[in-house]
Each structure stands twice: as C-alpha cells, then as structure tokens.
Amino acid sequence: MLRFDIISIFPDIFSSYLEASLIDRAQKKELIDVHVHDLRDWTDDPHNTVDDRPYGGGIGMVMKVGPIYRAVKEIKEKGGFDQRESKVVLFTPRGVKYDQKKAAQFSKLKQLIMICGRYEGIDERVAENIADVELSIGDYVLMGGELAAMVVLESVSRLIPGVLGKPQLLDERVTEEKGFVEYPQYTRPEIFKTEKGEEWKVPEVLLSGHHQKIEEWREKRSKIIKE
Fold first, then answer.
1. pLDDT tens digits, residue range 106-147?
2. CA–CA separation, 163 vs 88, rounded Å?
3. Which one of 35, 58, 89, 165 is most buried, by most CB atoms within 10 A?
4. pTM of the predicted model as reported, rounded to 2 decimal places
C-alpha cells in the first residue's frame, strides 16, 4: 500500500476530492493511504506563522523553512520507511516536468510526501535540503501546490493494481516499445445529429468487428505520451 502525505496550509481543499469516485474506493480497499496535514501544526509561535518577508526585499511573502522541516521530519519518522521507499516532492514551476514515467516511478514507492507551497515561494533551503524532487505539472503558475498534489495523487493511484478494478483498462494502453498510448474512442449513438442537421459519425472501421483493422486504426491515430 502506498501512503500519500500532503502538507498544505489549506488542508480542507482536499476533503471533497478524497471522498469521491475511485480515490475514495481505493482508500476503503486499503490500496492507498492518504493523509493531509496542516502545516500550521508545526509552527512554533502563538500566531502559527508559516511565512515571512524575503531577505533582500521583494514583493510578497515566503514560506518558512522551519515548519516544513519539522513536518517532513515527523511524517518520515511515523512512516518508518527507508530512503529508497520514501520520497519528498516540492511543487515549483521550475521543477522537472511531471509525466507518465515519473508517475510510474512514484507508484513503486511506499510513501510519497508532497509539499504544497503558497504565497510568492518557499525558502530555498527546502529545495536544497529537504525535497528529493522539485516537480512541475506544467509551464504555468498556480496559486498553490494543492491542485498539483491532486494530479500526482490521481495519476499515481491509478497505476496501483486494483484501483481501476480491471487491470486491462490500463494494460491495453501501455506497450514496452512505445510507452503510454492514447487513442480516440467512441460510444453510442453511431450517428449524432446536431440541431444544425450535422451528422457526426463513428469511424466505420470501429463498427466492422475486424479486430486487426481496428488495432491498425488505433495505432495510426494514437498519440504517444512520453514515459
């Protein structure tokens, strides 16, 4: 079972997400174990301060290293996993690009700790001394790392045996030679008519029942996602 530990100053953001669909079912089946932590629990002042002004000046506030250090240290100790089984992810726009290959690597772990930043950034000493991986889910800036954490949680969870229910739902799109493959899919009706009188048809090859031709069509139309 893979344990996810998410550190955030807005832990309530995750509540409805974790109680929905396959993620909720995977937790109940004990295929994944998800813990969301409030970073303010590791502050050491009466005001539960998690940020401060940046040295050298600048606009905005920077998240402090102290609370994050204490949070990760305690979470690691409670998990009890060795360094090869547990990784710490820091979400940042300058991090390595997240992809299916990284998701597959994470799915082999026992524990994944994810640090969700806010404000103008996080004290660089977190990246230098605490995080194992600086990760970006795209070339854009979010208000915080919470959505990125959900992306990683879902993409990794679906690779864990039993989460999708039927293994072939994933296996049919993965090949050793090409990696993760996505091809167009259609369902009923065979012809969809719009209010303008347009007819959107399902490709005839998919209605043919000719499995080899269908596979050839999917191969031609597929997009390969890098692993």
1. 999 999 999 999 988 999 999 999 999 999 999 999 999 999
2. 23
3. 89
4. 0.89
> Which carries the bigger pLDDT value, residue 161 or residue 224?
161
In sequence order, the 6+-apart residues with CB closer than 8 A to the CB of 35 are 3, 4, 5, 6, 75
Spatial distance between the Cα atoms of 149 and 137, rounded to a whole number of angstroms = 9
Q: What is the DSSP string of 6-50?
A: EEES-GGGGHHHHTSHHHHHHHHTTSEEEEEEEGGGG--STT---
Rg of the chain's alpha carbons, rounded to an integer? 22
pLDDT-based confidence at 32, cuts 50/70/90? very high
Residue in the block written with tokens 């998240």: 63
Q: What share of the chain is helix, strand, coil (3-state, %, to 5)?
A: 35, 25, 40
Tokens of 120: 């103008």
Q: Are 135 and 91 in contact (CB under 8 A)?
A: yes
